[in-house]
Amino acid sequence: MLSLFRGFVAVSYKEALHMRRDSMAILFALVVPLFEMIILGAAIDTNVRQVPTAVYDQSGIMETGTTEGTGDSRALIDRFRNSDTFAVYRYVHSDRELNEEMVAGRARVGIKIPYDFDRNLVRGDSAEVMVMVDGSDSTVAGQAVNVSTSIGLDESMRRVLSSGQQMPVDVRPKMMFNPDSRSPNFFLPGLMPVLLLMVTVTLTAFSIVREKERGTLEQLLVTPVRPLGLMMGKLMPYFALSLFETAVILVFMRYAFQVPIHGSVPLLILLSTCYLFVNLATGMLISTKANSQSEAMQLATMTLLPSIFLSGYIFPVDNMPQIFQMLSKFIPATYMMEISRGVILRSAGLPELWLNALKLFASGVAVLLIAANRFRKMIV
After folding, report:
1. Distance of alpha carbon 118 from alpha carbon 34, whole angstroms
2. pTM (2 decimals)?
3. Separation CA 159–CA 122 (nearest Å)
């Protein structure tokens, strides 16, 4: 059994020396992921705020001759303005002006209050308000529709309750795991598997390719090194560097962006080793396939895009077509996404996450054996 790993220590020591001399590789592994985390954590905010809004208040023009509205219409517009989602920047005087503001893109939301708004409220009838939303930006559109509907429902409930009636159903939502709806709390735990994938696969994808380009692969072929020992020896220095990178990301996430880690950090790092293992093995498989570093980079990039779009990082896997849900099960980042979000946000433990780690470890073993077999054919 030990003969299968012959040469492991020597190759590992040799690869560690190469890595120590390659300052650009260490810089890439440590600085680039933190730089991307800063961009996504600080620049991207999924909470839509201050959407430019134009108002056409027919009720106010009919009653007062101005665009500022009557008491009821002004109070309703104040509810929109105080929600922090809408920023009323202009009152218009006609449907044509309102439509022009929307078409020109100056207004993302247009609110039209009909001329009989106050009259219907006084009579106790239903008063309609039109909220036109620019659907060219789905994120803004969805948030604007949800908030405007919520404001209308809240205003209706307030008037019903003020008349002494009781609501037949009282729904009180409670946001769990991320009560403040902070974007860093959602993005960064999911970003962690993507960053680790980029570092691990790219670094190891160059390992054997570098030997080919330098002409030192032939020296390895004549040494008494078994393929599996060579694979493990080349993986080990990058595995240690990846563990250090994982710890740096967690520290940066916790203290720079104030993302609370509700679960066990040692458990998260332990389960992350399975993900690092399968990514390093994938990079080693790419390295046995590629003949140049540029080809290795292209193959490594091909693993990145599916991991971003099909792992559940951006789009929920449950909303995808069935064929893509099946493909997501073959992407290691899908399982690491569950592990990182589960431990960091939901305080999940080993009973909930052990199956994800087992699948990652089994995938890593399978990919490493395939890489070792490819290298054995190179020897022959």
Report:
1. 55
2. 0.79
3. 11
Q: How far apart are CA 23 and CA 17, in angstroms?
A: 11
Strand locations in the chain (E): 51-57, 86-91, 109-113, 130-133
Query: On the CB side of 132, how many CA atoms lie within 13 Å of its CA?
Result: 18
Q: What are phi and psi of 329, to 5 degrees?
A: -70, -15
* Tokens coding 130: 């039109």
Tell me which H or E stretch contains 238: helix 227-255
User: What 3-state DSSP class applies to 69?
Assistant: coil
Length of the chain (residues): 380
Q: Give the Cα separation of 137 and 219 in Å (integer).
A: 58
Tell me the three state secondary structure of residue 236.
Answer: helix
From residue 292, give the alpha-carbon distance in Å to each of 22, 113, 205, 233: 18, 66, 10, 21
The structural domains of the chain, ordered by start, are 2-44+181-379 (no CATH), 51-162 (3.40.1710.10)
CB distance 211 to 288 below 8 Å? no
Q: In this predicted model, what pLDDT tens digit does every residue of 267-323 receive, in sequence order?
A: 999 999 999 999 999 998 898 888 888 888 888 888 888 898 899 888 888 888 999
Which of 250, 299, 274 shows the shortest CA–CA distance to 365? Answer: 274
Name the residue type at position 319. N
Pairing relationship of beta strands 109-113 and 130-133 according to DSSP bridges: antiparallel
Distance CA(26)–CA(187), nearest Å, equals: 25
